Amino acid sequence: AQSVSQHNHHVILSEAASLELGCNYSYGGTVNLFWYVQYPGQHLQLLLKYFSGDPLVKGIKGFEAEFIKSKFSFNLRKPSVQWSDTAEYFCAVIPSTGTASKLTFGTGTRLQVTL
Amino acid sequence: GEEVAQTPKHLVRGEGQKAKLYCAPIKGHSYVFWYQQVLKNEFKFLISFQNENVFDETGMPKERFSAKCLPNSPCSLEIQATKLEDSAVYFCASSQRQTNQPQHFGDGTRLSIL
């Protein structure tokens, strides 16, 4: 079974600081990878996804993530955060082959951006 | 519709009562998923459907939880004899295909068991 680790539980940054949130997964085969964001009181929104091809993927709102297969990592980055980026961020994986269809989520990273 | 619609937004039940949650997937999506989020993190997969057929129910507690997706009706998740530990936000998601399309989530139903 696959698993996802997000080592940063709570990150506090000042506006305009750069962001990198770690995500590592464990699975023996190929995977599809996702980052979702959950703003306070709202549902999960897809930030970006990786299925294949260029390991550097760009998402909405200036976010990007890099898939490093050798490290089983899919870290999320943003060069300059804004106060409105305050939210919970979830990394998720799903096997890209086979019959499994459920997303496996990490425990989330709470990002707090201060003015 | 263009969004996953979940009702109600908030449901309060006394311990031992029944709770029923509804989900209308995005039009044209074949797959529906239910997740339980406890304590603002820890998403736990419950069950998925391919159209009206159960696809994966490995996460479903067998005793009190049941779910259906019937043609021309919203999908439903029902909890019999609720317990305090069932308090959580229940999210529904839908997708077009099995693994190569992202899952789109609804706003969730917050279930509070008193």
Secondary-structure map with pairings?
The complex is a heterodimer of chains A (115) and B (114).
Chain A: E1 3-5, E2 10-14, E3 19-21, E4 24-26, E5 31-38, E6 44-50, E7 56-58, E8 64-68, E9 73-78, E10 87-95, E11 104-105, E12 109-114
Parallel strand pairs in A: 2-12
Antiparallel strand pairs in A: 1-4, 3-9, 5-6, 5-10, 7-8, 8-9, 10-11, 10-12
Chain B: E1 5-7, E2 10-13, E3 19-24, E4 31-38, E5 41-50, E6 53-56, E7 65-68, E8 75-79, E9 88-95, E10 104-105, E11 109-113
Parallel strand pairs in B: 2-11
Antiparallel strand pairs in B: 1-3, 3-8, 4-5, 4-9, 5-6, 7-8, 9-10, 9-11
Question: TL;DR of this structure?
Answer:
The complex is a heterodimer of chains A (115) and B (114). With 115 residues, chain A is mainly beta. Chain A is built from no helices and 12 strands.
* Beta-strand residue percentage of chain A: over 45%
Spans where pLDDT lies below 50 across 5 or more residues of chain B? none
Quote the average pLDDT of chain B.
92
Number of DSSP E strands of chain B: 11
Helix tally of chain B equals 0
- Overall pLDDT level of chain A: 92
> Could you list the spans of chain A in which at least 5 consecutive residues all have pLDDT below 50?
none
Q: Counting H and I runs of at least 4 residues, what is the number of helices of chain A?
A: 0
Tertiary shape of chain B: globular
Largest sheet of chain A: 6 strands, mixed
